[in-house]
Amino acid sequence: MYSQRMDHLPPYLFARIDELKGEKIRQGVDVIDLGVGDPDLPTPEHIVDALCTAARDPKNHHYPSYTGMLAYREAVAEWYSGRFGVDLAPKTEVLALIGSKEGIAHIPEAFVNPGDYVLAADPGYPVYKTSTLFAEGKIHAMPLTAENGFLPVLDDIPADVATQAKLIFINYPNNPTAAIAPKSFFAEVVDFARDNGIVVVHDNAYSEITFDGYTAPSFLEVDGAMEVGIEMHSLSKTYNMTGWRIGMACGNPEIIAGLGRVKTNIDSGAFDAIQHAGITALTGPQDCVRDACRIYEERRDVLVKGLSEMGFEVSSPKATFYVWMAVDDSMKFAAELLDQAGIVATPGVGFGTHGDGYVRFAITRSVERIEEAVGRMREMNL
Ligand SMILES: *Cc1c(COP(=O)(O)O)cnc(C)c1O
């Protein structure tokens, strides 16, 4: 019944974990879910208010524009300029997305011919791989290892793969490893992409979720980046708006136009009322973002301290709401955590074979629940 393409899709790990979690809850277990990376904090009130007002205005009840309202694209450009010092032309260098996952899922359609290589990190956000498979491209996995600070080693990519590659996905601050990248890495990617004629897609979903005084850069800050790439960004993680489905693609106008052409033929844009709320988010007070980071930082400290005291070697991430920890066998570890302690963590192998040997904890639960989880793990004698 289903296409052969569907056979190539990896099982969506989170769906399987949800099943196991559901079973535990039915058995009456008080499950602590540190699995899926979805903020538990609410969307700030002024953004919700903006949506309510805009939703009541009949002007917003029609098909939106394909590219996003000009006012939304201008707000994105203004935010990029203030936050990163990157100048974007709203009409040609900014495109509204129905969440950045949507942009990531569609971009290979515009640039990848059947059999072309796409370079993506392993472990990595699963959509880079599945979108490549839908476009009938081939993934070349770039291993992320602790020795390399979880940055891909571009010199390790075979020359014939590099010349046949059409697209490279990068993502820093990184999900799932929580690693950050120096701007010098982005500069290397620009050179590599220019030498090999590759489109760069930097996924910057976590640029605002940073700690200890660290500020994450935009890929577009680097010299030459605008010539070779775009950045996918999103309001999801910054403003606790995962359910709203609003993001943006920014950068090279030809690449933006290619993605725009695909989207025009598939979707009809993001609800205008949500774009109005997005404008409020991007142009309004930003203390809500700093407050959220402080909350994540406290949770991170509790979890990292607890795990370290149990003897795990775990570093304290400078960004994202994930803690990435080395374990012997990621599937076995995650299964035992759920079985014996009612804690959901994501086995690293779900993000790629090089993720085996790690688990990912999402610190998207209250500090009390994280303390409770640490207490339960202590009793397990891991
Ligand atoms: C959450 C996430 C996204 C997707 O966010 P949207 O809600 O679709 O904007 C994209 N990339 C990474 C790495 C993520 O973790």
Automatic annotation (TrEMBL):
Keywords: Aminotransferase, Transferase. One of its GO terms (biological process) is lysine biosynthetic process via diaminopimelate. GO terms for molecular function: L,L-diaminopimelate aminotransferase activity; pyridoxal phosphate binding. SUPFAM superfamilies: PLP-dependent transferases. Residues 30-376 form the Aminotransferase class I/classII large domain. This is Aminotransferase. Its EC number is 2.6.1.-. It holds the Pfam family Aminotran_1_2. Gene3D superfamilies: Aspartate Aminotransferase, domain 1, Type I PLP-dependent aspartate aminotransferase-like (Major domain). It comes from Methanoculleus taiwanensis. The keyword Lipid metabolism does not apply.
